[in-house]
Write a structure and sequence with these properties.
The chain is an alpha/beta fold. It contains 13 helices and 14 strands. Strands 2-8-7-6-5-3-4 form a 7-stranded mixed beta sheet, with helices on both faces. A 3-stranded antiparallel beta sheet has the order 10-14-13. A two-stranded parallel sheet has the order 1-12. Helix 6 links the parallel strand 3 and strand 4. The longest helix is centred in the C-terminal third of the chain and has 22 residues. The model has no long low-confidence stretch (mean pLDDT about 95). The structure holds pyridoxal-5'-phosphate (PLP). Pyridoxal-5'-phosphate binds next to helix 5. The site of pyridoxal-5'-phosphate has 13 residues, from helix 5.
Length: about 375
């Protein structure tokens, strides 16, 4: 059977980590035990209240199609949360519940990008942004932030990549993989830039609850001068350890909502009914979320301090998320070489920074969404090979 691959699919790159996975597979077959620190999901169980609510909902027969916008009660809870936590007022008619934050981003890109449009992505960045932009037929343009400045954003970096075809900017704070949280100064730069060039801004706030020290997450939609330009994306995967449930949401101006809703209706109809019913309970889980964040903080503190005692390692404390992105100076190795070297010799699986685009030379992403015992074991193994 012969077939033509869709040109937008054809250009999607294979995940950078294929070679690494092959080494991991071989080591496993040799009976070696690997400490896996690549996973981008909480190691905690979903809070029991949420599971009970889902079970009850299914037992009550709430297992059919629901509105494409999402359950009104859930949208009410989301609107209240956006008002109380993020200082931004959205009507329930300005919120769509989506099957994941990733799908919310897909809706935004599909609804508002045309072939040839350019989308600014601040690198290092989560791997899916580029691919989703390409699937929408547009061109991802990397705005490279750099390690030396701790990935601090400047106007010059943004302006350098601006062209008459720039339509959109995708922003992620707290950031995967850098762990940075935009400062007040960076938010100001972004607000002015978005306003001046009248860009659509897709703001991915999926890690907003995981913030440490004095850092503060601020929603760009809370700046009235650009609220109409912003599509706020969020979800429950990271905050409530609900990665497998596939539920997220977006909030935006009604005119934008109408277009994204068309796509949602035609592609998935709605987000799973009982998953939405369960997510209503997520808003009663403040204590559970706080407990997870406290444990991430403890792990972060241990990990960062320990990494900085290993020769060649330089690790800044992540300001948010459950990722650290240390740089390693070792025999001139780049990030792919370092991750392969560590996996082969210490059986610790880390993601090469190269997977996240520019500004990642010699860096590795370490997920500390894993037990402190595993983190300690990883450190022990790393100490043995970097002497
Ligand atoms: C920055 C970022 N956005 C979105 C997602 C995906 O969220 P969801 O599980 O809701 O699709 C991830 C998952 O790794 C992520 O790192």
């Amino acid at each position: 059977m012969s077939f033509e691959i869709n040109s937008k699919v054809k250009i999607l790159e294979q995940p950078q980590t294929i070679a690494l996975n092959a080494i991991a597979e071989r080591l496993k077959n040799e009976g070696k035990d690997i400490v896996n620190m690549v996973l981008g999901e909480p190691d905690f169980a979903t809070p029991k209240k949420i599971i009970d609510a889902a079970t009850k909902s299914m037992n009550d027969g709430f297992t059919h199609y629901v509105s494409s916008m999402g359950l009104p009660e859930l949208r009410r809870k989301i609107a209240d949360k956006l008002r109380d936590t993020n200082n931004v007022s959205y009507d329930t008619a300005e919120i769509i519940v989506t099957p994941s934050a990733k799908f919310a981003i897909y809706l935004a890109l599909t609804a508002f990008l045309n072939d040839g449009d350019e989308v600014l992505i601040l690198d290092p960045s989560w791997v899916s942004y580029k691919a989703l932009v390409q699937l929408a037929g547009a061109t991802p343009i990397s705005v490279a932030l750099d390690y030396e400045s701790n990935y601090t954003l400047t106007v010059a970096q943004l302006e350098k990549q601006l062209t008459p075809r720039t339509r959109m900017i995708i922003l992620n704070t707290p950031n995967n993989p850098t762990g940075r949280v935009f400062s007040a100064e960076e938010n100001r730069i972004l607000v002015d830039f978005i306003k001046e060039h009248d860009l659509l801004a897709v703001c991915d706030e999926i890690y907003e609850s995981i913030v440490f020290d004095h850092h503060q997450h601020v929603s760009l939609a809370s700046f009235p001068e650009i609220k109409a330009n912003v599509i706020t994306v969020n979800g429950f995967s990271k905050s409530h350890a609900m990665t497998g449930w596939r539920i997220g949401y977006l909030a935006a101006d009604k005119k934008l909502i109408a277009e994204m809703l068309k796509v949602q209706m035609q592609v998935v109809t709605c987000t799973a009914s009982f998953v939405q019913a369960a997510a209503i309970t997520a808003f009663d889980c403040a204590a559970e979320v706080a407990s997870m964040v406290a444990q991430y903080r403890e792990r972060r503190d241990y990990l960062v301090e320990a990494l900085n005692t290993i020769p060649g390692f330089h690790c800044r404390p992540p300001e948010g998320t459950f990722y650290a992105l240390p740089r390693i100076d070792y025999k001139g190795m780049n990030s792919d070489e370092l991750s392969a070297f560590i996996l082969e010799n210490a059986q610790v699986l880390l993601t090469p920074g190269s997977a996240y685009g520019r500004g990642t030379e010699k860096t590795l992403r370490i997920s500390y969404a894993t037990s402190i015992e595993k983190i300690e074991e990883a450190i022990k193994r790393l100490r043995k090979i970097f002497v």
